[in-house]
Amino acid sequence: MTGRVCDLGNLMPVDEAISRLLDQAPPPPLVQMIRLDQAMGRVLAADIHSPVNLPAWDNSAMDGYALRAVDLPEEGGWLLIGGRIAAGDQACAPLLAQQAVQIFTGAPLPPGADTVVPQERCRIDGERVWLPPASVGDHVRKEGEEVRRGHLLLKAGKRLRAQEIGLLAGAGIARIEVYRPLQVCLLSSGNELREPGDPLAPGQIYNSNRYCLAELLRGWGVEVHDYGVMADELAASRHALSLASSECDLLLSSGGVSVGEEDHLKHAIEELGSVDFWRIAMQPGKPLAFGEVAGKPWIGVPGNPSAALITALVVVRPFLLRAQGMTDVMPRPLAVPAGFDWLQRNKRRQYLRARLTPGAGGQLSVELHPQQSSAMLTAACWADGLAVIDCEQQVLKHDNVMFLSFADLMQ
Ligand code: AMP
Ligand code: MG
Predict the structure, then answer these.
(1) Is the CB of 303 under 6 A from ligand 1?
(2) 75 near 155, Cβ under 8 Å?
(3) Which of 191, 254, 263 to mutate to test the pocket of ligand 1 (most atoms within 8 A of CB)?
């Protein structure tokens, strides 16, 4: 993010982990043709060129009077009212010299008219209208001024939001080619995990990653196949993984990737495919596993809930977006003044749960939650995003820090 050079020992820089994953992203899923009303959140599989000019013809941007600007004296003057055109009317009759027609927003300009004066600036007297000075083109939306027929409307690789769907509808496009949704199998690893609603025996905890990661995936447009908890045992892990790899495009698991774990997961994956364990220079986070199971990519994020969340947001998200066929996959950090001092120098890049707080003048600054443990989610619930402090970086209050908003990272 900053290009700072740090001695990371045997840790992998975050940016390298992301680019290694992107290099190995699978080709996007197959293409399907869908109706526009099913297209929200889907990724365009082909460039779309406009079949029409937008607007399709010259039309009025205001309710008022359409005229030929040369007919109006410099200081303004009177013209004869020659008719009325509303939105939806056809404007066939050409405008006669020294005439104006009453016109409404969105109505086509009559042939010959080149200017519109808003009605609140006009005075009516019987058959005549007084118009103030006007320049050619005032309040006219020209044919093709937004997009010309045949020009690029939207590029392949774009995820469709409400505004893109509106634009396509406005160009009269009813069906589009998108990638079919990416199918991701989600697995949790850990014998201590129980489901919310079930009683806990001593030593057990509730499975929070299953719920949190599933919602992240859905927010990114992925179809989730929830495999629940994989028992910490070789045969069970092998069975769950091999079923998942036959049903999904990609596997994501949490837990079981730290040093010192019981190694069932690792052995099961090695039997079915291959796996690399990476140690990434980020906090929270660090352990990450990447490999393949029966030819399907597999990513393992750490089990601590905040580490799982942040590793998924920062490292896994670009990979999953690329695997859906998206081109623009990296978040855009904002530079915002810090409302805190950060004096410790860390080897690992810090992703701190943070909030944007407006000061007296409305100027935003970044505040940190006092509790930054990788095991706890309360700070992430309080936060609007992540303050990013690079390896060895010190920050003084009012220095700019990079801020990644959850709103960006969760879509
Ligand atoms: P691990 O990465 O498996 O070593 O787990 C690290 C920590 O995260 C341990 O305290 C686990 O109990 C906890 N943990 C692992 N998986 C989950 C999960 N799905 N939900 C909540 N906590 C978990
Ligand atoms: Mg574990």
Answers:
(1) yes
(2) no
(3) 254
In the reported structure, the alpha carbon of residue 217 is separated from the centroid of ligand 1 by a whole-number distance in angstroms of 19
* Domain edges within the chain: 14-31+181-323, 32-54+145-179, 59-141, 334-409
Enter the pTM of the model: 0.93
Contact between residue 73 and residue 79 where contact means Cβ atoms under 8 Å apart: no
Rounded-to-integer distance, Cα 101 and Cα 362, Å: 48
- The two structure tokens encoding residue 353: 């749960």
Does the beta carbon of 285 lie inside 6 Å of ligand 1? no
Tell me if 207 CB under 6 Å of ligand 1. Answer: yes
Phi, psi of 387 (to 5 degrees): -85, 130
Which CATH superfamily includes the segment(s) 334-409? MoeA, C-terminal, domain IV (2.40.340.10)
3-class state of residue 167 by DSSP: helix
Please give the CATH topology (third level) of the domain spanning 32-54+145-179.
Molybdopterin biosynthesis moea protein, domain 2 (3.90.105)
Domain 14-31+181-323 has CATH 3.40.980.10: yes
Q: Which atom of ligand 1 is nearest to the CA of 257?
A: 2
CATH class of 59-141: mainly beta
Tell me, using a 6 A CB cutoff, whether residue 188 lines ligand 1.
yes
Ligand 1 centroid from CA 303, angstroms: 4
Cα 180 to ligand 2 centroid, rounded to whole Å: 33
The 3 state secondary structure assigned to 100-121 is: EEEECCCCECCCCCCEEEEHHH
The Å distance, Cα 268 to ligand 2 centre, comes to: 15
In order along its 411 residues, the chain shows pLDDT tens digits of 556 778 888 999 999 999 999 999 999 999 999 999 999 999 999 999 999 999 999 999 999 999 999 999 999 999 999 999 999 999 879 999 999 999 999 999 999 999 999 999 999 999 999 999 999 999 999 999 999 999 999 999 999 999 999 999 999 999 999 999 999 999 999 899 999 999 999 999 999 999 999 999 999 999 999 999 988 888 888 999 999 999 999 999 999 887 766 668 888 899 999 999 999 999 999 999 999 999 999 999 999 999 999 999 999 999 999 999 999 999 999 999 999 999 999 999 999 999 999 988 999 999 999 999 999 999 999 999 999 999 999 999 999 999 999 999 999
Structural tokens at position 20? 């290694």
